Amino acid sequence: MSALVEAATVVCLRERSTTGTWEVLLGQSEVKNWLRSTPDTTVIMRYPGEWKFPGGSQDVDDESLQQTAIRELREEFLGIDPTETPMLRWLSTRTTLPVQGKRFRMHNFVALSDENVWLNDVRLVDRVNGRLADKRRAFAHALDDGSFWSMDTAAKEAISPEVHRVQWFPISTAIDLMEPGHRQHVNEFQATEFAAHGVVSRDPMYQTMKTLERVSMLSRDDIVELGQKKTSRV
């Protein structure tokens, strides 16, 4: 029987003023999992090079799933101001198919731009991408001088690149990017990394796509009503 792991994500949304439809902030995953790789062995990320929500497994120190979601948001999207306390609303819970003996019960929370002023910062994407680039440069230096491989796990976690870049997408575009069979690669970065590491096919994020399909049919009031009893400031 596969183990069930509790996990949480943050769906960052803003409304397009011209159409009234949603835009979603996604991060593109790196392809190589440097934390699990060795000098002689390459381990590939799950969902390599795919666009995703910030999120991950609940840690023992997380007092709630909302805290898990916020911690992962800050770890993956490095430009988020740590003094900000995101306002999250529960959206949905989905369980993934088992992979390597684990299933993830994903608790999806929404951060609406009218309740989270940091999402309206026009410099947000550039700031996050700048800090992600700084992290990659520090990692590359540690890789070049050989110090990375002698680091303990915590130090490797702190420096290993996980998210390549972030970008706002119209929700219809985001759904199309995740549709199985629609395209060979999501962009040039994924194509180049696949070629470099011998990855032959994509692993589209089906559950993320289904979550976005649901969001695309919801108004702001629908989202507020849906998560009314589970809204939390953490």
Automatic annotation (TrEMBL):
It comes from Aphanomyces invadans. Gene3D superfamilies: Nucleoside Triphosphate Pyrophosphohydrolase. Pfam families: NUDIX. This is Nudix hydrolase domain-containing protein. Residues 3-192 form the Nudix hydrolase domain. The lineage of its organism: Eukaryota, Sar, Stramenopiles, Oomycota, Saprolegniomycetes. It comes from the Eukaryota. PROSITE patterns: NUDIX (PS51462). Coiled coil: none annotated.
